[in-house]
Amino acid sequence: MSKILVSGGMGYIGSHTVVELFQAGYTPIIVDNLSNSNIKILDQIEKIIDTRPDFYEFDLCEEKKVEEFVKQHADISGIIHFAASKAVGESVEQPLKYYRNNIFSLVNLLQAYKGKPINFVFSSSCTVYGEPDTLPVSESAAIKTATSPYGNTKQIAEEILAETANASSNYQVIALRYFNPVGAHASALIGELPLGVPQNLLPYITQTAIGKREKITVFGGDYDTPDGTCIRDYIHVVDLAKAHVAAIRLLEKGNPNGNYDVFNIGTGIGYSVLEAIKAFEKGSGKPLNYAIGSRREGDVIKVWGDVQKANTELNWKAELGIAEMMTSAWAWEQYLNETGF
Ligand code: NAD
Ligand code: WQD
Question: Which residues of the chain fall below pLDDT 70?
Answer without folding.
Answer: none
